[in-house]
């Protein structure tokens, strides 16, 4: 039987686990140094982990600047996808952003990532434009999406 999903703020001590998720989730994974910088030097950054049985299975990074929140990345280990963990994590992060004064949340998503786009639409995100050639691995366009919270 699966235990309840819990959320917690991530720290530098979690970087190895974050990288395991990052490296299996993205064709352009962030580096260890990038995460350490985010967790120690970026006053706007907040990283939240989704845990099952105390194990990190997903994470979401967000920058909260004034009244706007920007999702930097969100990922769930492949073997835990399809269980609504990403949705619950994103809802939790959006609630956190709202409590901290954010009025909108924005993100970029690959034009080919319809699974993620459908999740974002389910949570009220709408189309906000295109960033041409945004992803440097294949110069794929990104869709900018946003939602009022």
Characterization of the model:
With 149 residues, the chain is of the alpha+beta class. 30% of the residues lie in helices and 39% in strands. A seven-stranded mixed sheet has the order 1-2-3-4-5-7-6. The radius of gyration is 15 Å and the shape is globular. The mean pLDDT is 96.
What's this model, at a glance?
The chain has 149 residues and is of the alpha+beta class. It contains four helices and seven strands. The protein has a seven-stranded mixed beta sheet with strand order 1-2-3-4-5-7-6.
Q: Helix and strand succession?
A: EHHEEEHEHEE
In total, the number of strands is 7
**Percent helix range:** 25-40%
Tell me the quaternary state: single chain
- Kindly report how far apart the N and C termini lie: 34 Å
Strand arrangement across the biggest beta sheet: 1-2-3-4-5-7-6
Mean pLDDT over all positions: 96
SS content category: alpha+beta
Strand content: 35-45%
Please give the radius of gyration in angstroms: 15 Å
Largest sheet: 7 strands, mixed
Number of helices: 4
Shape: globular
Any low-confidence stretches, pLDDT <50, length ≥5? none
SSE topology:
Layout: E1 6-9, H1 15-25, H2 32-41, E2 45-52, E3 55-65, E4 68-76, H3 85-99, E5 104-110, H4 114-122, E6 126-135, E7 140-148
Parallel strand pairs: 4-5
Antiparallel strand pairs: 1-2, 2-3, 3-4, 5-7, 6-7
């Amino acid at each position: 039987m699966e235990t309840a999903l819990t959320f917690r703020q991530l720290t530098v001590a979690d970087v190895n686990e974050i990288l395991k998720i990052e490296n299996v989730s993205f064709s352009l994974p962030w580096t260890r140094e990038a995460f350490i910088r985010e967790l120690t030097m970026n006053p706007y950054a907040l990283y939240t982990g989704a845990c099952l049985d105390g194990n990190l299975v997903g994470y979401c990074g967000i920058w909260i600047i004034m009244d706007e929140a920007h999702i930097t990345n969100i990922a769930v280990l492949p073997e835990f996808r399809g269980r609504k963990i990403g949705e619950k994590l994103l809802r939790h992060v959006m609630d956190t952003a709202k409590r901290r004064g954010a009025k909108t949340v924005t993100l970029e998503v690959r034009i080919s990532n319809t699974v993620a786009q459908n999740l974002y639409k389910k949570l009220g995100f709408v189309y906000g434009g295109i960033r041409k050639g945004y992803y440097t691995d294949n110069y794929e366009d990104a869709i900018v999406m946003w939602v009022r919270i």
